Amino acid sequence: MTQLSGGEILARTLRAAGVSEVFSLHGGHLDAFLIACADVGIRLTDTRHEASAGHAAEAYSRATGRIGVAAVTAGPGFTNAYTAIANAYLDRMPVLFIIGAPSTREADLNTLQGGIDQVAAAAHVTKWAYRVGSGARLPEIVEQAIRRATTGTPGPVLLEVPIEVMFAQVEPPARLGKLSNFTLDDRPAPTSGQVAALLDMLQQAERPVIIAGGGATLSRSGAELLAFAERTGIPVAAGPKAEGILPHDHPLYAGTATSVPIARAMGAPADAVLLLGVRVGLFTGGRYGVIPAEAKVAQIDIDGAEPGRGGPIDLPVMADCRQALIAMNAAAGDREWTRRDDWAGTLKATRAVSHANWTKAPVYGESGLLHPFHAARALGAAIPDDAIVVCDGGESSIWVRDHIRPHGEGSFLITGYLGTLGVGQGFAIGAARAFPGRPVVLLAGDGGVAFHIQEFDTMVRHGLNIVTVVFNNACWGMSQNGQDLIYGKNRRAIVSLRDSDYEKVCEAFGGTGARATQLEEIGPAMAAALAGGRPACVNVRVDGDIIHPVTMGMVGLSPKQAAERLAANSKKVVMPYYENVE
After folding, report:
1. Out of 7, 29, 49, 54, which one is annotated catalytic?
2. pLDDT band at 261, cuts 50/70/90?
3. Has 419 been annotated as catalytic?
4. The model's pTM
5. What does the DSSP assignment read for 288-337?
């Protein structure tokens, strides 16, 4: 039998697993694999920083529900990608990271890009990290890695392939051409008793609501969720990781999960809440921030430890979201369901209620700069219905999320639990590969966009249909506003930025650029960028002194409360982003 290098065996194994896209940045440790990818039909998308390659692989997984693959070189390649690995770990994304390594025969000889135990370092932020010792074993090890990443609670895995394993010629195993055991049909379903209890809780409630999260998106349960909502008349709200799971114009789609607390403030509290693949914490407003205290709560999650993490749960269910909905749909057809059109309408109307005060606000702030609400609304109106939307930023993401309307599962990607700024360009690149026929719009703050601004080059070289919008307030917005609320505006520390010409950076890399400082300039600038046929950047200048209510909530103070606290010299300990201490 013809001998193959470890890199060739690795490429053939990945192709057998259905992998057609790999995100990477060149390193000599990987060459035997990189060269072999073209021979088996794997496309390489090379970025300008390893973190972006990792973020792109995660975005590809988020967008498609399949395994994402990133390959980076040893030493600084691995350490550069570490943030992306940790990001995927906290957000439970199935990503395979292939890491190069120096020769194990020279481990103690101060070799190039050696000296650190990459597997030990990765063990803390992966489901599995393993050093491959033989090229002939790569098929079985890759099979195991993909199964570990995609089954049970999903997450990233890492394979370190030393250079001698990657380059050495070995006789491939006989089963190389017969690989098929990459996934297991192990998605758990609820018991019949749990299904009955879930339906009883929802049927008996006056104002039930389903809140969908990342688990619902990754399990690709949109069709089943829509069928269940229509069968029962129960409205559905979406957490940030489930935007687009239902059509925005559907009468039972309530918009974002903030519709639930707003409805409560309007005198219509939900009395039964089903958390569908939602993890309680940051994206639920901390503990049960969006859930009325008086409501009964059921939680479906593939991780049995998740239900009840933030407080008592009336009905915990360990199951895959799609399998749970299939079972619930089958059982719901035998029951009579009360129409709840008024309740669904109340939830759907909360977006307009929450916007009412901002709609009346002047288009330009006291500084003469655009009000972020009006700028975000104009941007939302300019984004095509079929666009994949990526958000990268703190306060900027909050402003723009109120106005976007993603369509379809995986069509909205946002910073996750690690709070990583700079994911935007990588996410956009991965999304463009996942959905090559759809435009990608990256909405980034001026802080976030500069982490990996060199990826304009990647977008241009690979001809990716990406429009980057910089929500430019010349500051670290959430940080600046948090400091102002806690310490006063005269105490700011390292939160200011320059009003830079980010669009010219895009132009320098071969894309197109435009700047918008007036409301009427946003629509035409976006239309030209989307029609231009090249990666583009639209730099929208907005007022950084206007604080979004979510930032106030994360600090725990309104501007009035902040002023009173400072005037009274209060000793109350206020900490941004976390629970305050009395």
Report:
1. 29
2. confident
3. yes
4. 0.93
5. TTTS-TTSEEEEEESSTTSTTTTS--SEEEES-HHHHHHHHHHHHTTS--
